[in-house]
Amino acid sequence: MINDMITPPIIISGAQAAFNTEEIAIDEAKRCLNCRQHPCVSGCPVNVRIPEFIAKLAEGEFEEAYQIISQSSSLPAVCGRVCPQESQCEMHCVRGIKGEPVAIGRLERFVADWYRENVNAMPKKAESNGLKVAVVGSGPSGLTCASLLAKKGYQVSLFEALHTAGGVLVYGIPEFRLPKAIVANEVEKLKAQGVEVMTDMVIGKVLSIDDLFEMGFKAVFVGSGAEYLYGLIVQLLGAARIYAAEDPSYEKIALVYRAHGASLELLPLGADGIRSDALAATRASVLHITPYRSYPSNVTASAAKRREYIRWASEPGRYIVEDDFSSEFTVASKPEETVFSLAESGNVIYLNTFSQTVAPSLRMGYMVLSEKLAAQYAERIGFYSCTVPLFEQLVLAELLESGDYERHIRRTRRALRKRTEK
Fold first, then answer.
1. Bridge partners for 158 per DSSP
2. pTM
3. In whole angstroms, what is the distance from residue 25 CA to residue 21 CA?
4. What is the pLDDT of residues 273-302, one digit of tens each?
């Protein structure tokens, strides 16, 4: 099952720390060699004209630098903080071959912050073309889609299921990493462009997709986020069960399970996973875990703990939901084995996303089911359609079938391992 899914970043590295002064940012910008081939641009999912904005920054032309970034990126202040530059643009930086790459992410963050603090001009509303478009979900893809459409004159209505617009940017990333005021400012920019933002609107319950078309919308963009898969799991296994999740864990897990009528217990984490006494005492029959670098604690379950999870799930009627995100990019010589691959009883559901391994702009998540659960899925909720455009599915299929995806993973692992060893 493929859908729009994003999980928040895990590691906070030195490359993501802010520049404190204009002088430091300018000095870093002057390290850029302005290579003829611009490999950093090819490594950026949205092809930001990196050498051009850095050149303007080096000259002290901060507003011009911001305008260059904004031509390609709708959320520069967000991307400068949470985009994994170390595995994208900075990985391709020529300076990184024999030393440290140019800190592209930090420079983008500096420019965006400078603009917000010194200019922060709200965008002008484009002339309307008379066409209405609905955007479901206000996460990164929803905000970007709404902004791009509004610039072209579409009348955009943005529907968010929760109380505050921003999706994972608000509910899934801690304040120290991405201040909520920055996300709120981006939402205000959308409103200035004429986008109507509506919260507490659960599409599928309050309104259906058919209702939206009957209301005059000519198109509907669904950027439903990770909660789409979580909701499907409740529908698949049943809301009458008690679910359990790690404490702390990604905030939307609890919000979505409870929104679908399921009871949820939070089990405290220890140094290597959920504490054994809490696991033994839980009344839950479904355990939602993130064994590799659990967010936001960064705890990785040991091999012994993973076997303990499997033993817990060996009781009849118990299931494990393994929520993965970045285990493919481990720098260890031998990647961690997933609980799904270790279990033999077919009662582990595996979740992951291609947004981390391919690019944040590729909004695809997926879940892997055993044959038994796949048959159960087809019987109970197989009527759901995929929310990912067919073109993107075909591109991904080509990456997988050609072997390019696996080669990309191995190449990225090598680059990250070299950086770790420096």
1. 135, 197
2. 0.66
3. 7
4. 999 999 999 999 999 999 988 888 889 899
**Beta-carbon count within 10 A of 387 CB:** 21
Q: Which of 80, 245, 317 is nearest to 179 (CA)?
A: 80
Q: What ranges in 221-370 are assigned the alpha helix state H? A: 227-237, 251-259, 276-281, 303-312, 339-342, 354-357
Tally of CB atoms within 10 A around 271: 10
CB 261 within 8 Å of CB 283 = no
Buried b (16+ CB within 10 A) or exposed e, 106-132: bbbbbbbbbbbeeeeeeeeeeeeeeeb
Tokens of 183: 């996300």
Phi and psi dihedrals of 229, rounded to 5?
Answer: -70, -40
Q: What is the pLDDT of residues 94-153, one digit of tens each?
A: 998 888 999 999 999 999 999 999 998 998 999 999 999 999 888 888 898 899 999 999
Spatial neighbors of 259 by CB under 8 A, at least 6 apart, are: 161, 202, 231
Rounded Cα gap, residues 5 and 363, in angstroms: 6
| Contact (CB, 8 A) for 318 and 308 | no
Residue 222 burial (10 A CB sphere; 0-12, 13-18, 19+): buried
DSSP 250-293: -HHHHHHHHHTT-EEEEEEEETTEE-HHHHHH---SEEEE--SS
